[in-house]
Design brief:
Blueprint lengths: L2 H5 L20 H30 L9 H30 L2 H42 L2
Helix pairs in contact: 2-3, 3-4
Length: 142
């Protein structure tokens, strides 16, 4: 479409408008990086689930408390899952170009983004609390 046709309000064209597309285009390098990071996020999701299970099963008086490390493992699980939802699914949506997947992605992207920001905010506080918990536990055992 030429700029003259764009400015003409009477012209109705069936041509695709390149300025507004359903799918974001990815360069090959960007798609490879996102795919590799998605694989790492999948591994992190699984590893954090295993860690949560280990912390839940470990209830011994000789080991330190596991409340804050369990919460930290859950937050790490959450951030990995949110990465998958925000970036991994977006790469798949742009690659396969399925319209229903596109609509599903844009239905949950805002709540997933808000959840990821809350998770990012909570992680440093859990690190501080976990450190204080370990300090209290070690000072009681001296």
């Amino acid at each position: 479409m030429t700029p003259d046709k764009m400015m003409d309000n009477d012209t109705i064209s069936n041509e695709d408008d390149p300025l507004c597309a359903l799918y974001e285009t990815y360069t090959t390098v960007r798609f490879i990086f996102i795919t590799l990071a998605t694989v790492i996020a999948c591994l992190g999701t699984g590893a954090n689930l295993i860690l949560i299970h280990i912390f839940a099963m470990k209830k011994s008086a000789t080991t330190p408390a596991t409340l804050y490390p369990s919460i930290l493992a859950f937050l790490d699980f959450s951030i990995c899952l949110e990465y998958l939802l925000l970036f991994g699914v977006d790469a798949v949506v742009s690659f396969v170009q399925v319209k229903s997947l596109f609509y599903l992605y844009y239905a949950y992207i805002i709540p997933a983004y808000v959840a990821s920001r809350i998770t990012q905010l909570a992680i440093p506080y859990m690190l501080i609390f976990a450190t204080l918990e370990r300090l209290v536990w070690t000072s009681e055992n001296m």
